Amino acid sequence: MSEQFRINRRDMLRIGSVGAAGMVLGGSALAQSGEYLPPTEVDTGKVVGNKVIFENWRAPADAPSAPPPAPLPPEERVGFALVGIGRLSLEELLPAFGECKKAKVTALVSGTPDKLKTVAEQYGIPEQSCYSYDNFDQIADNPDVQVVYVVLPNSMHREYTERAARAGKHVLCEKPISVSSADAQAMVDACAQAGVKLMIAYRIQYEAYNRRLQQFVRQGTFGRLVGMSAVNVQTVAENGTQQWRHKRAMAGGGSLPDIGLYCLNTARFLTGEEPVEISASIYSPPDDPRFAEVEETVSFTLRFPSNFMANCFTSYGARDDKYQRLNFAEATVGMPNAYKYEGQSMLIGQRQGENDGETELVIQAPNQFSEEIDHMATCVLEDRRPYTPGEEGVQDHKLMEAIYQAAQTGQPVQLEPILGLDAFRGDPATENS
Amino acid sequence: MSEQFRINRRDMLRIGSVGAAGMVLGGSALAQSGEYLPPTEVDTGKVVGNKVIFENWRAPADAPSAPPPAPLPPEERVGFALVGIGRLSLEELLPAFGECKKAKVTALVSGTPDKLKTVAEQYGIPEQSCYSYDNFDQIADNPDVQVVYVVLPNSMHREYTERAARAGKHVLCEKPISVSSADAQAMVDACAQAGVKLMIAYRIQYEAYNRRLQQFVRQGTFGRLVGMSAVNVQTVAENGTQQWRHKRAMAGGGSLPDIGLYCLNTARFLTGEEPVEISASIYSPPDDPRFAEVEETVSFTLRFPSNFMANCFTSYGARDDKYQRLNFAEATVGMPNAYKYEGQSMLIGQRQGENDGETELVIQAPNQFSEEIDHMATCVLEDRRPYTPGEEGVQDHKLMEAIYQAAQTGQPVQLEPILGLDAFRGDPATENS
Amino acid sequence: MSEQFRINRRDMLRIGSVGAAGMVLGGSALAQSGEYLPPTEVDTGKVVGNKVIFENWRAPADAPSAPPPAPLPPEERVGFALVGIGRLSLEELLPAFGECKKAKVTALVSGTPDKLKTVAEQYGIPEQSCYSYDNFDQIADNPDVQVVYVVLPNSMHREYTERAARAGKHVLCEKPISVSSADAQAMVDACAQAGVKLMIAYRIQYEAYNRRLQQFVRQGTFGRLVGMSAVNVQTVAENGTQQWRHKRAMAGGGSLPDIGLYCLNTARFLTGEEPVEISASIYSPPDDPRFAEVEETVSFTLRFPSNFMANCFTSYGARDDKYQRLNFAEATVGMPNAYKYEGQSMLIGQRQGENDGETELVIQAPNQFSEEIDHMATCVLEDRRPYTPGEEGVQDHKLMEAIYQAAQTGQPVQLEPILGLDAFRGDPATENS
Amino acid sequence: MSEQFRINRRDMLRIGSVGAAGMVLGGSALAQSGEYLPPTEVDTGKVVGNKVIFENWRAPADAPSAPPPAPLPPEERVGFALVGIGRLSLEELLPAFGECKKAKVTALVSGTPDKLKTVAEQYGIPEQSCYSYDNFDQIADNPDVQVVYVVLPNSMHREYTERAARAGKHVLCEKPISVSSADAQAMVDACAQAGVKLMIAYRIQYEAYNRRLQQFVRQGTFGRLVGMSAVNVQTVAENGTQQWRHKRAMAGGGSLPDIGLYCLNTARFLTGEEPVEISASIYSPPDDPRFAEVEETVSFTLRFPSNFMANCFTSYGARDDKYQRLNFAEATVGMPNAYKYEGQSMLIGQRQGENDGETELVIQAPNQFSEEIDHMATCVLEDRRPYTPGEEGVQDHKLMEAIYQAAQTGQPVQLEPILGLDAFRGDPATENS
């Protein structure tokens, strides 16, 4: 056996030899309980301001840990009243508050007393902070509530936003802001008059993958953005005729304001531009009572001032799919699950040295609802204008009205160009929301 | 133009026509604010017991929503004291409590007062529930604490488990349970004597994808399990010589007990079997002070009674990778990120009708730390034996000692076969933890 | 050590023991050269007709091998003359003939003598079967040529198709068939008059993944097809102004007839339907000489009689991307590389038992050019009408003219509905082409 | 409408206007047949030496086309005789010759006359170049044959290699070279004595993705290679007892020499190193007649001089899977289908700027069989030593014998270290094979 190899064998066994005493099966361990560093060495992490900071303990080849969350002390957080405790509130929003760092739920509003009681108990909301739709206005007297989060059918958004504003509370309102641009504008006006903030819950604008994609677009990372294909479709139960989503008066439309809105709003958000031309085509299966009042399917194309074009498709008739694909001069970006509650991903097709490659980017993506809610809390705490204020919602309604008009008349609708970027947005959310 | 087509055109436009009044750009909307269903129709969801249940509102082609979480009221939850507020506690565990349904943090223990004060404020822990390592035993008098969660360097696990047991508190202890099987057994004995529960925080055994994979294995969904390749590697900073993980007395070993343990423990968990033969090979770069006391790299092979074989590989020298691949008679299952804190996925290669297909399964995967903690809370609330009790940790230490022995002697180690499945496990976690 | 285990150990070693004599390192092998089955047992496979058939030697969990190719003897194959030996001919078509089973190259036509000589030598084409554009008509006298494959700039397709037809040769013509529907129709008429077949080289209609997708659509495997998003974009060199593709007279258009045609043609092919409404929008960067005559970018939407809608996007301004995504009632199908020369794939998102899953289907996909060429050869051998005859090309030109008109006028174009499926197609290609 | 927008509209329509005359539906096209560039401008591409070269016509964001193949004229190619026309020959090798650039099939050898006749006709092999096993030696007189490609059961490799060498023909022999290292060495000696080349058909060493991976390893692109997990498993039909693969005397072993060999050989090929320590474990299901003589499953671990370790797993009991995963200091590389006939891919997990990313690399991957065969042809044409000569096969047999010994004795086998890289390899294949 060569010298070289024997050296290798020795190296290989060296570590084993050091620990030999502790390695015999069933024997006494070298490593003994009680041997430890003094606590100050064990408890790593320094306090800087009100945060704990750790050093990176990994080599550069590995992702460093994100800094640990530094939540605001419970008593300093902004209190939210949730108006409406349906599916979205129970499945997503109430759990999301558990991941918030600046917000907390302090009141609930509901029309069904037993559900209200059950949910209030689950989340520790005291009885005196539970309201019905009738006595909702008494919320004005509740100092634990600074923001009212309206999670009701679309046609009710205006009333509860206005009542909240009159009660002196800021408003976070689910999308779409309302059922028409006129109503939406009235809500904006009411909040302005009352001196309260109005933010629309466009969660995608607070979602980490879409925000990164926005950076790529704005910074020109992949060159000119040429086109986008956006899909937001899902099914509704066949016996779902009683759902408010199928009633025009309640919903303001069908798949378009409910889910197609994500395609529209995200195209605007990513580029910061506003469309100048819209064409559209609508289809609803005849004789299906679910689509007697509202549309099932809309295809629409947006043309923007930079001549970027977005092909959008939404429907209640196809299995759930929320996909967007962007074609840049120098890259293709696909985002499966682009508009889902979670599970976003991003695939970037690009020239990589002498090869083509498709890279799946891994981004730390916190709960998007928590991010959105914390942004509203931050705006209250720091008196900032929300990134997605009521005006953002008004503009989407104007554009949806143009989509319906284009489909109805069979004529593309031309829109007055709007100069500048982010014409309807407020202060961007930062890393600290 | 054919009759058929004219009908189609009419259908196409019908919806648009219905809503025409509301569609004119800038006009008055047909859908008017204030038109809404009575609140009882809006607020869907029925209360059953202490839960709210919704009907499925999607067609069968789409996944139904999971039932909304039904957290225990805060005052009914099990209180946990966190011993050690290092990286894992701050980055993962404290946030995970925000997603728990049965557990809450009620006390903190730390040796660094300013960090303790900062973190206690962030999470609303009252000053009287903050302990140092010195006065930790006073926790016996704290009725808000039912479980002590030990999150310290390995060599300290025994002491704090024993002190907690003496204080009459149940113990949830991070993995590995200790630094040797002898110490581990002493911990089990101490808890038994004190009449408190001891659970080891094997989070993977509570992680949704791995649990589903366990079902596949146990139910024989893909036929006999023939082999498994498991990898758990990551890097450590080059200047990391002061970390306790590099000190044998503190850590009990290097990459093996820290991360290689996942390969070992998961192979046991998935099959329920215990290995009968172990071979192993170790390597550490000579002259690297980080690996003067503990090993960098271990390759080991486990053979189980069913003759299923697991090839495992762990190292501190390679970029982060936590992968397992299982070869069944009728399928291949790959799990990228198998042992990560989040982001698990599962790819199943299988014959599908007349084609081969690889299916990526989408599973609702809650925060695995929250699931683990809630399981401990459930065991306390329902007086059940934890699924991963101290004995599970003792067995892993015995096997790791066999791995070290095999590497040191250059001889495979034969182990007494253990009959039956899940010899060291308690009551399985259910869907409600 | 328990009895059970000892038995296991014995089983485990049994095989080893059997072969012991042959296993000693460097020793004499038990398995000795010269020991073999009689040739009839070695040479498996039976001759059935003119094919060799093997039994499946794998378990049902694995894909059986496809039957081995059974190429026609060289002298029985159909001889093709390639007119134009530019990029496509050299990079794709000539190599593809090496994978054909019924076709062979027997003549070449080119205007550059040194290139003609070089390529003829490489592929063993005799000098007397090499033609210039001037003496091309002498091909009439070449009995080795049955089909002329026209691979020239679009505006030259008509002339060479007509000359080939006059020479009594069948014609396979690259897509687009020509530069206008009028020219296209003239080509169809000329071939009909001459009694020769005319096929357009729509390779996607012969590509395995797209053909499987067609089956899914036609058989309703995933329910109603609701929408489709199709993208075909690629870049052109900045100094590419001299390319014929940028000259309207030569190309008939820009990205639309060159690559956007794939979106249009594939939507028609998959459904068998013909569009009834087309809207479109065009953009070309001003002052870019490459786009002085032809368009850079086109977005167009097709509506079909079944109310299926296809959003299509094509451009010369974005990095190569050839993607289609289909939204069905019960599944989502994504096809990266849908229109590429190779590398197609198919991902099917679908409910799978109690989970959502995305399945990547693995299909045996032969060279699509070879399949296309062999289909033409089969049509000649069996006197069948090509699946993609000249009429298929005429229809695409009519539709592209409608797209240009819609973009130019800003008005959607309504088209006379065409009853029935596959109105312009011939006999489907079978598994044997 | 603002000025800016009107300008945009004009730009948008400008292109349309230019082409207006040709755009009216059904009208006369502006682009008219017959308008074309002179042929010399159409026929792009320059002749350089005996190759045609095209300029890149795409922007740098897109992959440039590979240069078109420049096959040797048929009469200059190296002629191969195929000995054995079983599954591999018919399904893979004969078709692969259609994609070769330097090789051609000129003779066939078989023991079943009707199959021989059928296949000879399909591939145009003249009757006088068809041989039986009896009259095979007459091939010495056939000037069209320069290489004999042995595609027979393993135990027959030696005889036919020796007979071919005696006939003065070079030999390309399927893997494994034989059934023992002794036989393998005899083959090497026989060819050396006869002055003919001997190459073993290790196709993976000629496969594009594995070759690129070799570059990454050798150039240290991702830092030190720490570990590798390699799997090669597949099933065999249950009634497959009569297959020669289940007879030790014919096959020399079970899954190990047939498919496990790929894991072993590729680990050696990628690093260029030779293992110094081997441990192994074997299992065969008792009472399964298929595994009465040969093993079903082998797990083995290789340790190399650089302390890189490879965990390998092979079995006839699991669904087809051919996977390798490499853990480097700075990246993880996964290769699904690593050892398949086609469909290789490569996923590289790596730090990318501020993110983690997993990149799927797209590499032009020609038919690996054609590459392998063309390499042998090149070695004949240029009198070079094959990259995978007989010695490469001898070494694999020695290592497989060590694997069997380790499994049988339950003791790792230590091997004499071999200095230098690629100790048993010849001249590397170049891009031109």
Polypeptide structure, described:
4 copies of one chain form a homotetramer. Chain A is of the alpha/beta class and about 425 residues long. The first copy, chain A, folds into 2 domains: about 75-205, Rossmann fold (3-Layer(aba) Sandwich), CATH 3.40.50; about 210-365 and about 390-415, Dihydrodipicolinate Reductase, domain 2. Helices cover about 30% and strands about 25% of the residues of chain A. Chain A contains 11 helices and 17 strands. In chain A, strands 16-15-14-13-9-12-11-10-17 form a 9-stranded mixed beta sheet. The first copy, chain A, has a 6-stranded parallel beta sheet with strand order 5-4-3-6-7-8, with helices on both faces. In chain A, strands 1-2 form a two-stranded antiparallel ribbon. In chain A, strand 1 and strand 2 (about 50-55) form a beta hairpin. In chain A, helix 5 (about 155-165) runs parallel beside helix 6 (about 180-195). The longest helix of chain A has 20 residues, at about 390-410. Chain A is globular. The model of chain A is unreliable at about 1-35 (pLDDT under 50). At the A-B interface, helix 1, helix 2, helix 3, helix 4 and helix 5 of A face helix 1, helix 2, helix 3, helix 4 and helix 5 of B.
